[in-house]
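Lay summary. Proteins are chains of building blocks that fold into shapes, and those shapes determine what they do. In this project we predict the shape from the chain. Here is one chain we studied, written as its sequence of building blocks.
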Amino acid sequence: MKDFEYVAPKSVDEAVAVLARHNGTAKLLAGGTDLIVQLREHLRTADVVVDVKKIAELMELRVESDGRLWIGAGVPCYRIYGDERIARSHAGLVDAARIIGGWQIQSRASIGGNLCNASPAADSIPALIAENATCHIAGPNGRRTLAVAEFCTAPGKNALAAGELLVAIELPAAAPQAASAYERFIPRNEMDIAVVGAGSWVKLDPAGNTIAEARIGLGAVAPTPLFAAAASQFLAGKPATDESYAQAAELAQKIAKPITDMRGPAEYRTHLVGVLVKRTLATAAARALGK
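And here is the predicted shape, written in a compact code that computers can read:
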């Protein structure tokens, strides 16, 4: 591993200043579970590593008065699934946070880091897309927001410009008769990379029989995680039945462009998209009814 300087700023402004001063040679460390491996294997280089876990704003996890969920970019996974309020309101994100690495990894790895690493197979990203999450970003030119669905631009690359960092991820308030779910398929029982991942969010009408809105996110089937827009829009106004879920799953399969690699052939991964979309839609709908 190449030698690097370590800094631990105490504020977002200080971190932005460090990033701007080093002009692309500084790398951010939230949990380090990806970055340290990448530096050790010479997949990335850094003159400076900027530890953001000393920045209070990036470690905040709170539910706003209007119900919106604020997740600081440095908040580790265990705090997500260990919070009963979040488990009730954003179950799909909890599903994902529980399976990012093992327990030891989850004590350090953050949802923000998982997003910034921009792996096509990241578990948190399809769940965040399904929940219509928003990124809060700070940089030399001030602050801006960007939908999580637009954040990943290529494998291992994201929309952060020079000198910018992810401050937090915001999820909309939980809606009545609405819930989410995330599932992945892996060859082993645990601690493996998704062959396919799918996250779904479903809002039912007051009677609980019809889908009012839906959102579907996909992982490991394209260079970046995907928002299945056509499949999501199709479900609006449809009965909350297995037939509707199957039709939406077929639409989701059409946007999947997986590769064949050591984890499975492209045809099998496309098939898995259909299986996991149907399952997560059904689970989300059942959760929306309190089941």
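What the prediction tells us: The chain is about 35% helix and 25% strand.
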